[in-house]
Amino acid sequence: MKMTRNTGNKMPEAYLNGLIPTLNFTGFMVNFLDDYARGFIEFAGSGDVTVLDLGCAYGVAAIPALEAGARVVASDLDQRHLDILAGRVDEKPRKNLQCVQGKLPDMDFAADSFDAILCSRVLHFLEGDDIDTATGKMFRWLKPGGRITLVCDTPYGIWRNVAPVFEANRKKGERWPGAVKDLSPYLPEGARGKPAKGPAFMNLLDVVLLKRICSEAGFVVQRSGFIDRSDLSGVGRMDGRENAGVDAIKPK
Ligand SMILES: C[S@@+](CC[C@H](N)C(=O)[O-])C[C@H]1O[C@@H](n2cnc3c(N)ncnc32)[C@H](O)[C@@H]1O
Fold first, then answer.
1. Hey, whose CA ends up nearest to atom 13 of ligand 1?
2. DSSP letters of the chain?
3. The ligand 1 atom nearest the CA atom of 27
């Protein structure tokens, strides 16, 4: 049975301190921007640019990018997220907003469409080959000189129970060491034994993997690192590696 949440086109209530549940159980939109998303928004305010936010949820980055002055294409798997996002935008900036429902890696845009792309906390829901296909497409969608920003969940944050498996798989040389098909033994403390309401599959990533993904797609990495999400108090122990991020450029 497909589970849904009905919120009547309103953004759901925060679960904990800025964690807004998605309607399709693909985790939460984090309502506090990290440094990588902030860089994307700063770029959005840098001039006459068109930017794409993939897996935008209710617009935590897309709306500030719009307010910064960019033309924004906000895209998500779930049309309900896009409807809520559009309802949060005033009439005047809405003329610069296009909402596009689509699923990575199947969706497509024309080549050379965007000056920047943000894909924040989405890629870890995809199988490894699909991550490579999706980032290859992002490369094509960007104009030469365009920038990509990727942020993902790591095996050190809420999925920290996966860390030993990730490390062991990496030692064995596995290409996707954080790919976990049965998440039930690794659920965060407190969630075990309850009906599964999370994703069925996760492909947890880290800085090394994000850099490889970008390089193999043809990008030149500018900045990368772990992202400390200790701003999300109330979700358990944090060690400063909860997310990983990368900024990279498509060469001219
Ligand atoms: C964890 S939320 C991240 C939201 C926001 N980008 C952030 O960083 O907080 C994941 C979002 O990605 C969307 N999503 C999940 N899988 C997707 C896919 N294969 N293609 C496009 N969007 C996807 C979900 O619908 C959801 O809105």
1. 55
2. -------TTSPPPPSBTTEEEPTTSS-EEESS--HHHHHHHHHHTSSS-EEEEET-TTTTTHHHHHHTT-EEEEEES-HHHHHHHHHTS-HHHHTTEEEEE--TTT----TT-EEEEEEES-GGGS-HHHHHHHHHHHHHHEEEEEEEEEEEE-TTSTTGGGHHHHHHHHHTT-SSTTEES--GGGPPTT-TTSPP-S-S-EE---HHHHHHHHHHHT-EEEEEEEE--TTSTTS----S-SEEEEEEE---
3. 1
Number of domains in the chain: 1
- Ligand 1 atom having least distance to the Cα of 58: 27
- The pTM of this model reads 0.93
Residue 107 covered by a domain = yes
Q: Let me know if residue 191 belongs to a domain.
A: no
Q: Is residue 167 part of a domain?
A: no
64-85 mean pLDDT: 97
| Protein residues whose CB sits closer than 6 Å to any atom of ligand 1 | 22, 24, 26-30, 55-57, 60, 76-78, 81, 103-104, 120-122, 125-126
Q: How many Å lie between the centroid of ligand 1 and the Cα of residue 189?
A: 23
Which pLDDT belongs to residue 10? Answer: 87
Minimum-distance ligand 1 atom for the alpha carbon of 151: 8
- CATH code (residue 49): 3.40.50.150
**pLDDT-based confidence at residue 5 (cuts at 50, 70, 90):** very low
pLDDT at 7 over 60: no
Q: What was the pLDDT predicted at 239? A: 84
Domain of residue 104 covers 19-153+206-249
Supply the residue whose CA is at minimum distance from atom 11 of ligand 1: 55
pLDDT at 193 over 80: no
Ligand 1 centroid to Cα of residue 165, in Å, is 25
- Average pLDDT of every residue of the chain: 90
Ligand 1 center to 48 CA (angstroms): 26
190: in domain = no
